[in-house]
Structures are given as C-alpha cells and as structure tokens.
Amino acid sequence: MWSAAGTWLSRVSVLVVIVVLARHLDAREFGVLGVATLAANVALQLDDGGLSDALVWWRGLVREAAETALLGCVALGAAIAGVLALAAPAIAAVFHAPDATPLLRVYAIAVLADAISGVYLGMLTRELAFRARFFPEVVPALCGGLVTVGFALNGAGVWSLVIGDVLCSGLRLVIGFLIVGRRMVPRWHREVALGLWRYGRAALSGSFLEFALQNVDYALVGLLLGPVALGLYTIAFRVAILPFLIVTYVIAGVTFPLYARITTDSAAIQRVMQLTMRANCSLVFLMGAGLATLAPFLEVLGLRWQPAVPVARLLGVYICFRSAAFMLSMLLRVVSPTANALLRGTWVLLLIALIATVGRTGITAVAAIQVVVAAGMLGASLVVARRLAGISIATLVVDMARAGIAALIAAAATIALHQEVGALSNPTSIGALLVLGGTFCGVYILTLALIMPGVGGDLRRLRAVAGRTAPGASVTAPSTLPSQ
C-alpha cells in the first residue's frame, strides 16, 4: 500500500510537471532539457556503485555495513558529480546542445545528494520500513514538482526543472538523515567493503542494463536527429511511460520477492504469473491503447506538439509489450539472473543497431522500432520463462490477447465517435478529450468483463497466495526505477 501510494503520488506530480513544461517550452528547449536529464540520470545510476542494493542484501553486521556503504557512497558520489561537472561542455557538444552545459553542472549537486540519501533509503528498505520510507521519497518529489511548476509559470524555462530536481534531491537527503541517518557515521571496514562490492557490482551491472534499455533511444535520437527531434520524442515517451511506472512497477514490487519465496513450487509460480500478468495487462492495455487512440489530443498541450502524435500512437502499443516482458523478467531475475541479463543486453543491442540505421529517418521510425523489438523480446522472454520455470505460454498469450481484443474494440468505438460527432473532432478541446477518454474506458471495461471475467479478483487472489508463503523473507521493490 505504501509503495503504491508513493509511486502514484510521485508520478502524478511528474505528469503535472510535464504538462506545465510542455505548455511553456518549445521542442528545442525540451530537447536541451532531455540532454541534461539523460546525462544526469547516467550519473545517478552510477553514483552509489550498487552499495545501496548491497546494503539491503547484506547478511552480516548491519552497523558496519551501513557505515562502510555511507563512506563509499560519499566518495563515489563526489567523484561522479565532479566528473559530470567537468565533462558538461563535452557532453553538451556531442548532442549539439551547448545550452545544456550549465544545467549539467547544477545537476552535479543532485548526484552527490542522491548518492548519500540512497544509503538512508536502503536502510529503510532493509528494515521493511516502507511507511517511513514513504516520506523521504514522496515529500521531496511533491515539493520539487511544486517548485518546478511555480518557476515554469514565472518564465524560468528549462531551469525550472533543474531547480526543482536539485531541491528534491536535497530534501530527500535531509529527511533521510533525520529519519535514519543520525544513527550512521561514515567509517571504513575493509572486509565488509569487499563483501558489499562483490554484490554491489553485480547489482550495478543489472540496473545499468535496465537503465540502458530505457534510455538508449533518447541518446540515439539526440545524437542522430538533434535536440528538436529529441524534444518531440521526449514528450511522447514521457506520456507513454506512465502506465509502466504506475502499474507495472507497483505489481512487480510484489511479484519479485514473492517468486523468491516459492522457487521450488512450480504450480504456485504458474498461478502467480497468471494472476499478476492478467492484472498488469488489463490495466496497462487500457492506458497504453487509450494513449494510442487519443494521441491526437497531445495538441491540448499546444499545436507545436502535433509532430509527436504518430510517435505517441506507436509508443502506446510499445508500452503494452514492454510491460508484459517486464513482468516475466521478475521471474527470470529469481530463476536465472544470467538469462535475464542476456535478454536485456540483446534488447539493448537490437535497439542500438536498428535505431542507428533505420531510425535515422525520423522519430516515428524510432517508435516503430520500439514496438517491433519489444514484441520480439516479449516472445523471447516467454520462451525462456517456459524452459527455465515451466510457465505455460499459451495461457499467458490467451490472456494478453483478450486484453488486446478489448482494447481494439474500445479504440474502434472511440475513433468512430471522434469522426462522426463534429463537436468531438477538435484535438485541442479538453472537453472532447474527456468525453472520448470516458468512452474508451467504458467500452474497454465492459468488453473485458465479458471476455475475461474475474480479472477484478486477481489481486485479491494474489494476496491470498502471498499469505500462504513462508514468512520472514525480505520484500523489496525492483531496484531500478525508470529515469524516463
């Protein structure tokens, strides 16, 4: 409950920020901001060296591990923040966005603060103190969002997000210190450090592959097509990724530790996979297909975003495949981390190869590549999960197909209404968006209830399965959150 509430509040804040920025920035400014946040997010992925995750995993003396991790994160965070500040002009030049240089240097402050606060959040996760963790995660995000919106409305431009993000990181550090940090002093313990690093480097490589999967498209669009194209692609992707963040990551936060408890019970694994996949796809297909259907209404944010409409349509489909594949990766992380890493690596390499060649024609081609690769990797993930864990492919595909059919029927009804009723044909009308969005949701829910009855009880059944598993296991959410 606390994890879901924190995720949803944070993402609502992000959505509000995106809408306000989209109405006050042009495509090039959005592209410059995309360059700055991409480079900053790379630094944020590396700033703790995997030590925060290692602290959650650590099975020895907690105090010594916390002291060592804190010292290591201070040192690593300072080093990576310094590199980011020094390399800012070169990074901006590579992406042909010199305006990003001062933004990157200010983001270095957030990198250092994030490295230190990661240890505090890691301690709260280790102690399963999700209620306490809610405050350093959500309060700074809401405050940063409010500051960003306020500065944007007063004409601060791209700096509004940078200021809000730095404030968010600083507040997270302060609140984390007040909750748990006062009990921790940075101190070096050599043997503990070696143990933390052995696990941390593996965790870091896995999380960085996930990060690369979620950001390689940004990097290549910026490099190959320029900051204006990156700005258009960014607005489409930031809207499309929301179902993944507010649905898939919340459900995955339950399934990963649950699979770790039931690895020897193949029947329970199949049951959990079917329940979670049905629940996830039912919600994500509603949102993703709804985005694909209502993509023309991006013009509500301004007519300058019209070139992003076909991109948003394709990314709405992509997010459906991407979310289903991610649910399978939670099982593969338990039964074979190596296989999971190989699938992620293959996915990244395919995206790089195709975007670097076919994707040069424009951002619509990049979005189409995302759909094709995600569909192929979903199929590969299904095959690997069947071989390693005995998952029934047919059962999962049938459930996904049912959600897809409901989405197609809802899309057809909504598009017909959009075309036949003149008052609903204006893509800049918020009223038309609300009516058509309500129509899509109503038709989808009704159709899904007819062709896949009982889906509403899946989460309740999942809770019953979780209640029958062995007590005492650690429950944590996925270690890598999508920066996009």
Explain what this protein looks like in three dimensions:
The chain has 484 residues and is mostly helical. The protein folds into two domains: 1-205, no CATH class; 241-484, no CATH class. 80% of the residues lie in helices and 0% in strands. The radius of gyration is 22 Å and the shape is globular. The chain starts with a helix and ends in a 17-residue tail after the last helix.
How many helical stretches? 17
Order of helices and strands: HHHHHHHHHHHHHHHHH
The CA-CA distance between the termini, in Å, is 24 Å
The computed structural class is mainly alpha
**Overall pLDDT, averaged?**
82
What is the 3D form? Answer: globular
Number of domains: 2
The helical percent reads over 70%
In short:
The protein has 484 residues and is mainly alpha-helical. The protein has helices at residues 2-24, 27-46, 51-57, 62-94, 100-126, 130-153, 159-179, 190-225, 227-240, 242-261, 266-294, 309-335, 337-357, 363-389, 393-420, 430-451, 458-467.
Keywords:
484 residues; mainly alpha; 2 domains; 17 helices; 0% strand; globular; disordered C terminus
Please describe the topology of this protein.
Elements: H1 2-24, H2 27-46, H3 51-57, H4 62-94, H5 100-126, H6 130-153, H7 159-179, H8 190-225, H9 227-240, H10 242-261, H11 266-294, H12 309-335, H13 337-357, H14 363-389, H15 393-420, H16 430-451, H17 458-467
